[in-house]
Amino acid sequence: MKRFLLALGLMVSPALAAEPPRIVAEDLRIPSDTPGIELFLRNKRPATLTSFRPERTVLYIHGSTQPSETVFDLPIEGESWADRIAARGFDVWLVDVRGYGRSTRPASFREPAANGAPFGTTAEAVRDLGTAVDFIRSRRGIERLSLIGWSWGTIITGAYAGENPGRVASLVLIGPPWTEQGTPAASPAAPVGVWQEWTAEIGLRRLQQGVPAGEAERIFPAATRAAWEAALLESIPEAAASNPPRFRSPAGVLADGPAYWRAGRDFHDPARITAPTLIILGEWDGLAPLRQAQALFSRLRNAPVRRLVELPRASHFVLVETGRDALHREVQSFLEQD
């Protein structure tokens, strides 16, 4: 039986009273700081939102292989995480750094990887994030905004937040890889080319490292996987030329490995971060396990608020797994804190 609210003598259904806002979306390409390279941004917000505030403006940045839209804006059961945040009255943005998704992919991506130098390094990604932040700040007339980074994106956002404290309202780090004490020096590595190549199967196996046997399909059902693979193909359509599709993404992050994380050297100093910071990860995250999150957490000495949350039955790919509802609740609560 339906319950009704009595107001001014009228029977009003709660479902009608709480009708969700209409979300509008806008895709843009903006110039980077490098001539000839443009960055893809997507914005989602309630249609009625006309006044913008720093604490209600969010920018998401992706990890080291996939573009932002295939995870943060992946519709699952009709709604993406970007949609959910926007429905709460937020101005929501995502960005693809150079070489990813719909941002400029150099001509060298169509040539053998060995024909050029690594593209899309972490330092370049930090600059691209800064370009996106400045664009949003100018367009919305705000000084600061909140950043959400996933995986490699946590290194990008952390570095940017430390360098630009006045521009970051809060920081969310999902599945952050971090240097562990006692990491041995990197052995000589094979040369890295312009791009790296992977299939959906290889990518998923890497993202779900640490998941117990028999659990991977339970937390990432076939229907969700099909939607994810379709989104990958839509963002990188040339991958369909192979069977199975083979996706190319920048190899700059691989070139950074011997110089930083594989050598036990931090890319940035977390002590420089002065924004409230949430670190959140899945208990089955074998790619960026709890001990790394704890090492990072211990370095956040100057964050006025710092939280570390571990979610049950979730992997590094928690953003689109069955544990995403818990992730969304924790992050939303953090973003809306007073």
Automatic annotation (TrEMBL):
Pfam families: Abhydrolase_1. Keywords: Hydrolase, Signal. The keyword Oxidoreductase does not apply. GO terms for molecular function: hydrolase activity. Residues 57-321 form the AB hydrolase-1 domain. Residues 1-17 form the signal peptide. The keyword Hydrolase applies. It comes from the Bacteria. This is Alpha/beta hydrolase. It comes from Roseococcus pinisoli.
